[in-house]
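#struct-pred
JK: can someone run the complex with 6-O-phosphono-beta-D-fructofuranose? inputs below
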Amino acid sequence: MASPALISRTHPWEDLKAHVEDLKGTHLRDLMGDADRCRSMMVEFDGILLDYSRQRATVDTVDKLLKLAEAASLKEKIHHMFHGERINTTENRSVLHVALRAPRDAVISSDGKNVVPDVWDVLDKIKDFSERVRSGAWVGATGKALKDVIAIGIGGSFLGPLFVHTALQTDPEASEHCRGRQLRFLANVDPIDVARNITGLCPETTLVVVVSKTFTTAETMLNARTLREWISSALGPDAVSKHMVAVSTNLPLVEKFGIDPKNAFAFWDWVGGRYSVCSAVGVLPLSLQYGFSIVENFLKGAYSIDQHFYSTSLEKNIPVLLGLLSVWNVSFLGYPARAILPYSQALEKFAPHIQQVSMESNGKGVSIDGEPLPYEAGEIDFGEPGTNGQHSFYQLIHQGRVIPCDFIGVVKSQQPVYLKGEIVNNHDELMSNFFAQPDALAYGKTSEQLRKENVSQNLLPHKTFTGNRPSLSILLPALTAYNIGQLLSIYEHRVAVQGFIWGINSFDQWGVELGKSLATQVRKQLHASRVKREPIEGFNYSTTTLLTKYLE
Ligand code: F6P
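RT: done, structure tokens with the ligand placed:
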């Protein structure tokens, strides 16, 4: 493949830069008055409605963004991803998380080998194992059924599964399947996280799943050793084979750790950590908790969006539109952050997961060829479910900084409540906010409106809302396992689209290495000072002072 020119040197990029000026005097209040424009900014697929009419964009803007996509060879890049080309060039890897949710008869190849049969071998193994554990056919060392699971992992080996677990917990169908069972996640190396996780659990009835792509991550391995000790000190060292299993690409290290390779669930280097929730990383713990059939529906939902992303024309393609609009907001309108605001408590772990997917993928400073970027890539993602967020950071979003918002709503609540005497049911109450907030941001409130309400002169500037603050709304029909899979896939592909346009490698993460290696140096020093009483050496004044205070 020839080296791509930086996208900022293309005509469509220049054109969009100039186009920002065209929009300077245009307020969202005016744009929202044009019903034809709004109609053209709605896309529906498989029950999901995307409404991006509250973006600071005209039909012309979208045309220009589509031209930018062409200049960035977006279609070709998507094609390369789905066809197993080694688009993660710095690690010389394919990027094939879409193969993880492909049906059994699909053909998706990496290096000329169809990887789908391997994927299904592992899925079949998970189905079999999780059914044996759930039915009590697989028991612990003392013959008791394993009703509780602690999944140890961090980053991509934690956040995605936690998000899906949290979202499924209140789904009526999924919760039917997990009576009497618990799934917990141990991520932080902080011993407090260990304490929290084992509190109330008994080693006799607990299965520990060690999840690590590399099986070298310091936090995960220390936590794994800690829980191995928890099990073997209670039940004897032989109990480990009954109480610990692993998910990894590094099966030799799994075995070296003392986990029977028969009890290891593989995945492959073409699955990036933050894109691994559909591999055994997520599928094993979630199947243990909810049963394989629920998790299969989750994979089907993700697959549905994969197909949409691969084959739908760009102007009707939900992840593509979302990605292009984010590029527009970051690179042209200059908004560096994005708020992810699901109006569903079940999605409380969605923003933290997308934070990693997005910020670890697109937080880059050089192009895929290593050229420093003359523009910023990536954005700061954060979020909270509505309405909680409204009572926290929405003040800043309404009257402070401009932060494009993703409002995510659900038509059918997982847990509807109808309270006698209320004018609407509880879910309608929640959704009233979902529908109101985007308009509050877009329209704002003028001083004229306030004057008509007899607001006193001195309060006018404080009560004025400038409006013209962009958002988009995504309405899901429900929040079943299938819909959760759809949502995941939409965001994964959106992030990829942004990276493809910015011309970066969204699939490596070298930026996490430096801190890790400096921690190794500190770890050695702490050991030397505590055990051998050696002085602190080789650190700057600040770190030396902090370390001295800590060691005192
Ligand atoms: O934070 C860096 C990172 O490498 C992530 O990309 C990854 O998801 C996480 O650490 C955990 O890695 P592993 O699954 O190898 O333990």
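RT: quick notes.
The mean pLDDT is 97.
Residues 154-157, 212-214, 217, 220, 273-274, 360, 509, 512 surround 6-O-phosphono-beta-D-fructofuranose (CB under 6 Å).
JK: thanks, will look after standup
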